[in-house]
């Protein structure tokens, strides 16, 4: 756990190793959120797949329900209201609600201090890859990608929403920044090979390009379904500097303070968001 500076928005990133059922997931994550609030956080963010992390199709299909019936989503909304904090459910795996498509949504939910849902974002880019170590992922077979980006107002500034694999698509982050986001969330469940190679570099690059804080709570360790995730939850400042980081895969709480004057300073120093030009090609 990092020590808190004296001023700024107190945020906390929750690092988890989410179990494969909602009941176990809630028992796992609730104490960490309570700890974060007791330690002073006003805005708390959880990772991708906070309600369950399960690739085995028979178990996954039985576990997934609608957003308004999901036990973790409902409980965390109540918890945000009880604690008087804003909470980003980094993502919940829930039924998408699209007729004729039985794939789930990988949905980020921003909850205000009254327990209300302020914003929803369904992960735009699904992870379909064959890694050099032999691991294969076809997220598109079970996750319906979203159709649009999302930026939401908070008491401290605008938050842009992204999830995991979205980090590799800089044009999305540029759109979020140009829509006024001073902080961008990237809850994740990164694989170990890609996490070790690219996680911090990508987070720092997106922060530099946007002049925004990047908040990246992560899953970490070996999960019940056999997958291994990288952990290393990280907060990056708008100049690209890592201001807080967990250096391990274990569940825990990462604290940081965000000084939004640094966003203005970074964007004034390198005003690239104002310098887009139309251009032709390549063909």
TrEMBL record:
Keywords: Hydrolase. Residues 9-260 form the CN hydrolase domain. InterPro entries: C-N_Hydrolase, C-N_Hydrolase_sf, Nit1/2_C-N_Hydrolase, UPF0012_CS. Gene3D superfamilies: Carbon-nitrogen hydrolase (3.60.110.10). The keyword Hydrolase applies. One of its GO terms (molecular function) is hydrolase activity. It comes from the Bacteria. PANTHER family: DEAMINATED GLUTATHIONE AMIDASE (PTHR23088:SF27), NITRILASE-RELATED (PTHR23088). Belongs to the carbon-nitrogen hydrolase superfamily. NIT1/NIT2 family. This is Carbon-nitrogen hydrolase family protein. It comes from Brevundimonas staleyi.
């Amino acid at each position: 756990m990092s020590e808190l500076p004296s001023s700024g928005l107190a945020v906390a990133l929750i690092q988890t190793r989410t179990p494969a059922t909602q009941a176990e997931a809630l028992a796992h994550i609730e104490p960490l959120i309570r700890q974060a609030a007791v330690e002073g956080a006003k805005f708390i963010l959880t990772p991708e797949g906070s309600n369950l992390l399960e690739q085995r199709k028979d178990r996954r299909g039985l576990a997934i329900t609608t957003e308004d019936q999901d036990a973790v989503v409902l409980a965390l909304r109540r918890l945000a209201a009880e604690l008087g904090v804003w909470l980003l459910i980094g993502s919940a795996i829930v039924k998408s609600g699209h007729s004729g498509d039985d794939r789930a949504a990988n949905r980020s939910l921003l909850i205000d201090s009254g327990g209300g849902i302020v914003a929803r974002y369904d992960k735009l880019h699904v992870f379909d890859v064959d890694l050099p170590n032999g691991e294969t992922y076809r997220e598109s077979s079970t996750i319906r990608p979203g159709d649009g980006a999302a930026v939401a107002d908070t008491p401290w500034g605008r938050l842009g929403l992204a999830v995991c694999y979205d980090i590799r698509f800089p044009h999305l982050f540029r759109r979020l920044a140009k829509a006024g986001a001073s902080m961008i969330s990237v809850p994740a469940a990164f694989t170990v090979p890609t996490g070790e190679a690219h996680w911090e570099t990508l987070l720092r690059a997106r922060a530099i390009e946007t002049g925004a804080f990047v908040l990246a709570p992560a899953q970490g360790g070996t999960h019940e379904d056999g997958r291994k995730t990288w952990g290393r939850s990280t907060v990056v400042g708008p100049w690209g500097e890592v201001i807080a980081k967990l250096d391990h895969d274990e569940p825990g709480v990462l604290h940081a303070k965000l000084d939004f004057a640094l966003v203005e300073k970074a964007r004034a120093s390198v005003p690239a968001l104002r310098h887009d030009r139309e251009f032709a090609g390549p063909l």
